[in-house]
Every structure is written in structure tokens, then in C-alpha cells.
Amino acid sequence: MIRFENVSKVYARGARPALDDVSVDVSRGEFVFLVGASGSGKSTFLRLVLREERPTGGSVYVAGRDLSRLSSWKVPSLRRSIGVVFQDFRLLPNKTVHENVAFALQVIGKPRHTIRTTVPEVLEMVGLDGKEKRLPHELSGGEQQRVAIARAFVNRPQILLADEPTGNLDPTTSLGIMRLLDRINRTGTTVVMATHDDEIVNEMRKRVVELSTGSVVRDEVDAVYGERESILPLVGQTPVLDAPGRGARAVVVPRVQVSPEPADLEAERAAEAAAARAASQPPAAQTTTEQVTPEPAVPEPAAPEPAGSSADDVVQQVLREHERVRAGREA
Amino acid sequence: MRLQFVLTEVLQGLRRNLSMVVSVVLVTFVSLTFVGAAALLQTQVTKLKGDWYDLVEVSVFLCPTGSTAPTCADGEATPEQVDALEQVIDTELADVVANTYFESKGDAFEAFTQMYPDGYQGTQLTEDDMQASFRLKLVDPEQYQVVDDVLEGRAGVEVVEDQREVFEPLFLALGRASLLAAGLAGVMLLAAVLLITTTIRLSAVSRRRETGIMRLVGASNLFVQLPFMLEGAIAALVGALLAVGGLWLAVQYLVTDWLQDSVDWVAYVDVGDVLLIAPLLIGIAVLLAVVSSVVTLNRYTRV
């Protein structure tokens, strides 16, 4: 799906290359973490995939296209097969949630009836059902990122690129976003995520490609983030500065506890419910048409109904009701 | 769908930097008014030339008694000299002269008494004060110089006069006015191009977020740039329409209703001429907008 063959990228003449002889092959449906320090070339990697930059050496193949031979008027068609999510969400502040997601379809000339059906679907999938009319500033960071993901995914791209999507979010909210990306990955979408978040990488156990000063230094399946380079050896005694809780396990550093916003939790719950429903539905009812590889038969482990609080039961009941009404309308 | 979306974008863009749009409209309005005025002045000159050159003649005045001109040293032109001149006109100037009319002293006096029965400015003149002349109607009034070269200095010819010379100062003045208008129009058009460029750039920068997302999700180049182009084109078009309207009003009230009433023996430009130059003005406006937006957008919204 994405293949880099000895790719080099030098931004300014004489400067250190941002990427130096990088060869990476990402196959269809894979989930790849791109890790490395700031300036190691992660963003350049993503920009090359999007053909925002052209390599100074080597070739880049994305979704069967040779990007070095791709004429500039075909670039839009390439980008329609790639969704992108950023650390800073990049939502349009004067458009509602629904309009933000619909915008991505409008500007590539999708007909109105397609927009009317796909946008609510994808919003339900990311767990923002019922918040269509909110403006971005009325949402929490996690919810905003969900909108951004919905916008990136609404056209059902073959590839989803995420450039530190959890960089602005607290750990719990980040986890919700990761579950969402994982769910998207399970629909057959190739996901490449650049990140600094070691906790997430360690927890997900996916393929990890580590870049360092423009070269691939590690490419492992089921990997962890890896040891941090001790860039400040003298400060190693006070790990708080560099990596709280890491490297000096004996020293118990109290971590800042952040409890996520109730809205984020609710969104996550709704998204999971939507996923559970999608998994339990027969594949025929699946509306995602293009290039959807068969859903894994095993329902998501995290998907079962969150038991316990009665509020959850009510939410579930409402959602089920909603679903029944919708099914009735479609029939 | 697409069209509606583009139009919404255009409207939003126009609203967002309204003051810039208004200034674009005004600058194109003023510059195109100058362009139009130059064109109308040229039309006026052509009309006058067409009208008046049909009437003008070349007068070959023959020597009267007591003339001080060197060719008239022998006194009044004799009938032989007149015949010889007529011969020359019929042969050497046959291609140039369409019509020859000989006005004798008697004819001239008759015409004079008809025009001024009570004498000219209080003086009673006699037939001997008159001057015989050839009136030559030329095939092409511009060929006066040929006639002058052939006849000037011949025996019996006092002076060759082109009636066109009477109009020359007027045409010169009109020509210079139209040049001036064209020059001002040039400067204003330059200002218009720069202003449209700045406006489009501002608009593009203020919507960088949108265009960035459009490019990321794979909107085509045309789709990204079209709203900006349309914005520039609409502003320029409104300016052009205002210019046409302004010229229309000026011609209607200043020329047709006022000048034509006071000086009615001249053919003037009318609103029909304004309509004739309207496509020119609108064309210039659209061209301005397209050129400036293509130049700007290639730099600011390239994929």
C-alpha cells in the first residue's frame, strides 16, 4: 500500500537530509507506528506519502501509484484515497461538526444525497451521534479529534495518516482515540501513525518503525516504543524532567492524574456501541462500500456493552431504540 | 451541488473582505470610465471627421488686384491663367479631385450679398473687392498636400487653402483629450490590477485553513481556486457595469440632452456608442481579474 524505496529527502542544499535512504513497505490493512524524536523525519515521511513534498532520491509508491511520476493534476485523486489527522485537529471553527465532516465530501464534488447518508453514519461511528450541530469550540479536545477523524475517514480512504493525533490529549482520552483508530484499521484501512506517546505504542503492540536522524533504525512487528535515548545523562537522576516514571523505577514519582471529561467518555461509549452494533449486523447491511475487507469475525474485545451503571443502560437503551427506528425507516 | 457550494463560498468570501471588494469595484469603475471616455472621444472625432470632411473643399484663391503675393506680381489673374490652371487641375490632379467649381468675382459677390445683405461689419463692398477662386472637392480630403504641391506658386494663384485647417485645432484638442484619458486609464488599470491581486491574496490567506483542508482531502485545483477567481471577476464586473452606467448617464445628460440642444449642427456620440464600447469595458474587466487571479493563485494556493 505504501512503499518507500531508498527514499532520501533534503530540504535545503547542503543541509542534513530529513530522510536518508529510507526503505519501508507497509502492506494493505496494516497498523504502523512511526516513532522517533522530533526532527527524526516522521512528518517528512507523511508529507512524502501525501506528495506534499517530492523525494530528492528514491521512489515512493502509494496505493499503486508511483508518486515520482504522478503528474500534479492527479495529486487530488491520490489524496482522495488518503485521510489525514493532525495533532491540532484543523477543524473549521465557523462550521458545525456536521458541516466540517460534510466539507470534505462537498469539496470533492460528492452529490448531496451521498453526503446526507454518509456523514451521520461516520459521526455515529466515531461516537458523536447527536452532536452534529455543535461548533468545534463547544467540544472537548477528544471530541474535536473525533470530528477530525470522521472527516478524514468519511470518504473511506484506503490509507489513514495520523500525525501525533494524541499529542494534545490526556492519556485516557488518547486511549479512546486509539480505540477508534484501531476500529478504523479493522475495516481494512491502512493506518500510519506518527507519535511520541510511548504508553500507547507499548499498549497497542503493533508494528513500530523507528526513525532517527532520517534513517530507519528499527522496524519490528508487535513492538514497544523502545528505550529513550538519554540525551541528558547528567539529569538522569531526576527522571521527572525527561521521562516521568521511566528509567528510575525505584523512585516513585507521583503522576499527574487526569480524569477525562464526561463528554469524552460518553463519546467513547457511543462509538463502542456503534461498533458493537456494526459487528453484530450481517455484512450485507454494511454501507461502507469501497475496498472494505471483510470485518474480522471476532467482535471487538472492548465492544461488549459496558455493564454496571444504570446511566449506561439508559444510554444503551436509547441507542438501541434509535437503531430500531432507523432500521424501520430504511426498510 | 458543486455550483451551489462554490457560490456559497464566493458569497462568504465577498462578505468577509467587503471593504477590499468595494475598493476593487471603485478602482475598476474609475479606470474603466477613463477607458470608456477615451474610446468615446475617439468615436466623437471619427464622427466629426466623417461628417465634416464630406463638406470641406480646397479653395484655390486667384490673384486679385493689388495682392502682395510674389506670384501675383503681374496683377489680377488673367483668363489665360485661369484656363491654364483649369487644364492642370483636369490633367495632373484628375485622380485627386472629384469636383471642380470655378467661382468668379461675380459669383463670389453674389454669394456675399446673399449672406450679408447689409454689408459686412458696416462696410459696403463691391464686386472688385471679391476674389475669384477654384473650389476643389477632393476624393479623399486627406490628400490636400498633393493639391497644394501642384498648384501653390503657379502664376495667377495667390494661395491654396484647405478648409480642413479650420477644424484641425478642434481635432487636435479632442485627440489630446482622448490620449490623456487613455493615459490616466492606463495608470488606473495598473492600480486596479494591483488591488485585485492584493484582494485575492488577502482572501486566500484568510481562508488558508479551508484551502489547506480542501487540498488535503483531494479537492481539485480548479475547485480550490474557482471561488477566488470568481470573487475577483465579480468585483471587476460590477466595476465595469458601473463604468458603463456612468458613461451612459454622462452621454445622456451632458451630450444628448444638453450639448445637442445648445450646439445642434454637430453629430455627437449617443448612448448607442456607449453600448458599443460596453463589451470592450466588460472584457477588459474580466481580463484584469483573470490575469491577476491566475498570477496570485499560482503562488498562494498551489496543490
UniProtKB/TrEMBL annotation, chain A:
Q: Which residues form a coiled coil?
A: none
- Nucleotide-binding in keyword set: yes
Region of interest (Disordered), ranges: 263-331
Pfam families for the chain: ABC_tran
Mind listing the GO biological process terms from this record?
cell division
Q: Which SUPFAM superfamilies match?
A: P-loop containing nucleoside triphosphate hydrolases
Looking up InterPro entries in the UniProt record yields: AAA+_ATPase (IPR003593), ABC_transporter-like_ATP-bd (IPR003439), ABC_transporter-like_CS (IPR017871), ABC_transpr_LolD-like (IPR015854), Cell_div_FtsE (IPR005286), P-loop_NTPase (IPR027417)
Top-level taxon: Bacteria
Basic and acidic residues: bias regions: 319-331
For the ABC transporter domain, which residue ranges apply? 2-238
Biased region (Low complexity) positions are 272-295
Task: Write out the entry's keywords from A to Z.
Answer: ATP-binding, Cell cycle, Cell division, Cell membrane, Membrane, Nucleotide-binding
Report the membrane topology from the UniProt record. Answer: Peripheral membrane protein
Q: Name one GO molecular function term.
A: ATP binding
Q: Family, per the entry? A: Belongs to the ABC transporter superfamily.
| Subunit organization | Homodimer. Forms a membrane-associated complex with FtsX.
What role is this protein assigned? Part of the ABC transporter FtsEX involved in cellular division.
| Name of the protein in question | Cell division ATP-binding protein FtsE
Which species is the source of this protein? Isoptericola peretonis
UniProtKB/TrEMBL annotation, chain B:
Specify the FtsX extracellular domain's residue ranges: 56-160
Task: Say yes or no: keyword 4Fe-4S present.
Answer: no
User: Which positions fall inside the ABC3 transporter permease C-terminal domain?
Assistant: 184-295
Tell me if Cell division is a UniProt keyword of this record: yes
Q: How does it sit in the membrane?
A: Multi-pass membrane protein
Q: Which UniProt keywords apply?
A: Cell cycle, Cell division, Cell membrane, Membrane, Transmembrane, Transmembrane helix
Q: Which InterPro entries match?
A: ABC3_permease_C, FtsX, FtsX_actino, FtsX_ECD
The record's function comment reads:
Part of the ABC transporter FtsEX involved in cellular division.
- NCBIfam families from the entry? FtsX_actino
The UniProt subunit note reads as follows: Forms a membrane-associated complex with FtsE.
Q: To which protein family does this belong?
A: Belongs to the ABC-4 integral membrane protein family. FtsX subfamily.
Q: By what name is this protein known?
A: Cell division protein FtsX
- Organism, by scientific name, is Isoptericola peretonis
